[in-house]
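[Archive record]
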Amino acid sequence: MTSREGQDGEKSSPLAAVVDVVVRTLVDHPEAVKVTESVRRGMTVIELSTAPGDMGKIIGRQGRTAAALRTLVALTGERHGVRAQLDIRD
């Protein structure tokens, strides 16, 4: 499992990096953003957790922001030859 938490010099996949950069620009508490990556049943799963007060910003109105993030992850994964999905954890 790879984790991208801040600028700790740790390598991460392009999928985790894209989610990390986009989400940190959306939230009020970017230091609380945690993006982890794992592989389940041949699919890359990106798990995102944020501060409780920022969850609404990630989900967006009628879930539009969350849907856009999931689409971004799927397309980035496709571009890199992997199946990928985004799980948003509270």
User: Anything to note?
Assistant: The CA atoms of residues 52 and 90 lie 7 Å apart.
